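Give me structure tokens for this 294-residue protein.
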Amino acid sequence: MPKPGFFVFALLCFLAYPGAVAANSATVEITTGHWPPYLDEGDADQGFVAEIIRAAFAHEGVDVEFSFLPWSRALAMVEAQRYDASAVWSCTEARSQRFIYSVPILPYQYVFYHRARDPFEWSELSDLDGKTIGLTQDYSYGQTLKGLINDGVVSADVTTSDLANFYKLLMGRIDLFPMDPVVGEAMLSTQLNSYASRLSFHPRPLRSAFYHLVFDQESEQARQYKATFNRGFQAIRDNGRYQQIIQAALSENSSPIAARLLERILVEWHDDTGPCRQAPDQISPDLSAPPMNR
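Here you go.
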């Protein structure tokens, strides 16, 4: 019969092993920020990206708890190893020095919103010459747009919120407003519904990349959670749950025409660039679709 000391030794070894916690008893704690419809502190499901993340971990028997914080604090708390991960972030060189990334969860794009009554087509940067572009304070729009502003090709009109920029666009004070169309469509449907038909977006993206979960690179447990999430995420893409979540979210937050276009962007993507794709500074390829009209 084994001596009592053997059981103590075996228990210590079990607890010391990073993968020792049974998947079905684990809870991953994730920081995030309020960013409807992706992540929504006031919604029962906490936003459709939160649903995707929860479904991926659930497939592997892991529970998820989200904590909504200011964005800078959300990232800092992961680096301090107070939380396991943070959702969701694009890949940048600076963040890549501090964090490890999950597989891509969702593509994102910045497109130009414009007044529906004013025809707008663009395929080259020169097509933007002379335009006044509304920007939201403290946002990063990439080097392409920054270069156009610095070279005087376009003029920038900066304000404090996306909603203010939509009002400026409606009033004719700016010509274009670059915006993530998933967020833009949700904002128009909930906060500017009576004016939504007066605005449209061109499907050609100014900028595109992917959103990821980020984990602290010094934590072995975080690496275990990353591997768990990656497995679960691939499984829910394969079994159709991923597509179901996105389709339901777009149906709720977008016009029918916009929902069809955005579904193609968000669902029918393929990524072979590895776990961390840098946001390109150049213009992304066209979607081969006409301008979006409601």
